[in-house]
Amino acid sequence: MSRPVIGIAAYRDRARWNIWDTDATVVQQSYVRGIADNGGRPVVLPPDDLDADVLHRLDGLLLTGGADIDPAHYGQEPHPASDTPRPDRDHGELLLLRTALDLDLPVLGVCRGLQLLALVHGGTLHQHLPDVVGHTGHCPREGEFGRHEVRFTERSRAAAVYGPRAVTNSHHHQAVADPGLLTVTGRSDDGVVEAAEDPAKRFVLGVQWHPEVSGDDELFAAFVAACARPAAVTAPGADPLRTVGTLG
Length: 248
Hints:
Blueprint: E1 5-9, E2 11-17, E3 20-26, H1 29-36, E4 41-45, E5 60-63, H2 87-103, E6 107-110, H3 112-120, E7 124-126, H4 130-133, E8 146-152, H5 157-162, E9 165-170, E10 175-178, E11 183-188, E12 193-197, E13 204-207, H6 211-214, H7 217-228
Parallel strand pairs: 1-4, 1-5, 5-6, 6-13
Antiparallel strand pairs: 2-3, 7-10, 8-9, 8-11, 11-12, 12-13
């Protein structure tokens, strides 16, 4: 059986290697490893806002972490701490995500990816989390990960992977404020949304932490397994969560 082909949303940045110091399409190797080591065939997708036709050739979509989403997408002015907007990435990933949801492709969103899921489902973001929770524990400083416990909703996809709770890493100064039509299935003790999903879809899950850094192979394995299943696998009236516990 061939491996499921999974698109990983990449971005443009300055990069140096060998003789080169140039504009490049980049994505952390840890995302590629998470897909490949758990049975998937990763394909890197550069920013492209012309169309999302490539998704007809893919079995799933992974949205990676990175720069803040332009708050114009959810009707707000930028906070002083917000990143400079990356319109090519925002428009390209929003197009990919909306199309993937229309096609019912499995989607895994990491950090920024969770936030994109919330926006597409009609939600909004907290632009600077310390203003809301009163501490910097979710991002102690640039380049340093925090750690905290997350509690998961029983019978959710997140709980099927992690159990009722898990200690996760943390490096974000923004978070979901209103999840829109997403179902929140994980929170930290200070109430921050750490996991959310769309139970009406085959597999749509966003997490606020960085499983590619901590090597959460159980999560990548569950995602790849969902990508390997045909869209019509769930019988009418069946519980789409019943099989998730066997994954990973």
